[in-house]
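FORM 7B: Structural annotation worksheet

SECTION A. Query
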Amino acid sequence: MRSREFLGHHELMVMLAVLRLGRDAYGVPIAAEIAQRTGREMLQGSVYAILERLESKGLVTSRLGEATPQRGGRAKRYFALTAEGSRQVRETQRALEALWHGLTKTAGAKP
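SECTION B. Predicted structure
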């Protein structure tokens, strides 16, 4: 990833969900994890589009699991962060913490 390119809000949420889920990270539980933790629904189609974009950037990798009869013989596609993906998440965390540092709870609130 180029140094001037930043993770988008949704990209970061998907990557954090992938980290939380570990080896069980595929579309359905990723969307569920985001909804549970944030209270915001994310469509599975959006999750997969983000995952494909992240994979093309080299931030996640994917592997196919076993085909199951419950899925009509289709295999689940599992995702994991790459070393670069982990680095970008940590860098984004540090940048956001630096921006938040020193702000009061009411900063920006209208009187």
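SECTION C. Observations
The chain has a mean pLDDT of 88. Residues 31 and 43 are 7 Å apart (CA to CA).

SECTION D. Sign-off
Analyst initials: ____
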